[in-house]
Automatic annotation (TrEMBL):
<dbReference type="InterPro" id="IPR058163">
    <property type="entry name" value="LysR-type_TF_proteobact-type"/>
</dbReference>
<dbReference type="InterPro" id="IPR005119">
    <property type="entry name" value="LysR_subst-bd"/>
</dbReference>
<dbReference type="Pfam" id="PF00126">
    <property type="entry name" value="HTH_1"/>
</dbReference>
<feature type="domain" description="HTH lysR-type">
    <location>
        <begin position="1"/>
        <end position="59"/>
    </location>
</feature>
<keyword id="KW-0804">Transcription</keyword>
<comment type="similarity">
    <text>Belongs to the LysR transcriptional regulatory family.</text>
</comment>
<protein>
    <submittedName>
        <fullName>LysR family transcriptional regulator</fullName>
    </submittedName>
</protein>
<dbReference type="InterPro" id="IPR000847">
    <property type="entry name" value="LysR_HTH_N"/>
</dbReference>
<keyword id="KW-0805">Transcription regulation</keyword>
<dbReference type="GO" id="GO:0043565">
    <property type="term" value="F:sequence-specific DNA binding"/>
</dbReference>
<dbReference type="Pfam" id="PF03466">
    <property type="entry name" value="LysR_substrate"/>
</dbReference>
<dbReference type="InterPro" id="IPR036390">
    <property type="entry name" value="WH_DNA-bd_sf"/>
</dbReference>
<keyword id="KW-0238">DNA-binding</keyword>
<dbReference type="GO" id="GO:0003700">
    <property type="term" value="F:DNA-binding transcription factor activity"/>
</dbReference>
<dbReference type="GO" id="GO:0006351">
    <property type="term" value="P:DNA-templated transcription"/>
</dbReference>
<dbReference type="InterPro" id="IPR036388">
    <property type="entry name" value="WH-like_DNA-bd_sf"/>
</dbReference>
Amino acid sequence: MDLVDGMRVFVASVETGSFSGAATRLGISPKLASKYMAELEAQLGAQLLHRTTRRLGLTVAGEQLMAQVPDWLDQLDEMQNSLREERRGLSGTIRVSAAVTYGEMFLAPLLRRFREPHPDLTIDLRLSDRFVDLAGEGIDVAIRIGRLDDSALMARKLGQIRLMLVASPGYLARAGRLETLDDLTRHACLRDTNMRGDGAWPLYQGNQLTRVPVSGRFLANSARVARDLAIEGEGIALCPDYVVQVSIERGDLEHVLPQVCGPQLDIHAVHLPQRRMARRTRALMDFLVGNLARSPTAEKPVPD
C-alpha cells in the first residue's frame, strides 16, 4: 500500500463516516478501503479509528492525524497539479462572476485572451447585476465595480472607471446645449437603475460634489441600454467610460459638460479567503491585474 493512498482512505473514511462511503468517493471497493486502513494503522503503529457496526470514530491518535493530513494532501495535490500544468498549461474550471454590461463588453474578450494558450482550461463566466454569493454559487473570482460591502472577502484592485455625461449631437441640437449643472434639470435624462441612490446624479466639478435631481421617461437597469437610447436622441445619459468611449470617438455621442464627471469607481477582483488558491485562479488574478491596472478606456472595449 502507498502511504498517500492510505491517508486518502483515512480522510475519506472520517469525512463520510464509513469505509463504503470512502470507497465510493475514491472509486475503490469497500474491502480494499478497509484493507488500506488496516495497513496504514500497522505502518504507523497506532489505531486511528474505532470501528462499530454503525459508524467509525476517531481515536486520540486519529484526531491528531486528522488535524494535519487534509492540508498535507491538499498541498500534495496542488504541487502535482502545478507540475502538470507547467508542462501542459492550465486546466480545470474557473468560475467568474461580473456585472452584465462590463462582462459582455470588456471582460469576456480579456478572458478569451487568457484562456487561449490553455486548451484544457474552462472559463465559466456568469453575468448578473446582483452581488452573487461566492460560496453559495461556487464562484472563484468576482469582478465588482464600486464600493465593497463584504469585508469578509479578499480583494485586489484592478483599476478604476469614471462616469460621463453623454448625449447625441441631434438631441443637443434639438433640446439645447448645457452650460451649467443646473441645465440638467430641464433635460430628459436616461437613468440606469443599477446606480445606487435616490435618483439624483452625484456629479463633481473639481472637488465640489453636487447631487443633481434628474427626471426622464426612460429608466433601465443597463448602462448599455442607456447609451443606446442616448444615441437615438432620447436624452442625456450618465454612463461608465468603457460603455461610451467608442461611441464618442465615432461621433454618435458627445461628452456633455466635460468639466463635470461622475464619481470614479474602483474595480476589484474578489474571492473567498482561503489558505491556498488554485494555480489557475492565481494566474487569472495576475493576468487581470496586469491588463486592468489602467482605466478600462486605455484598452478599447469590443465595438457593438
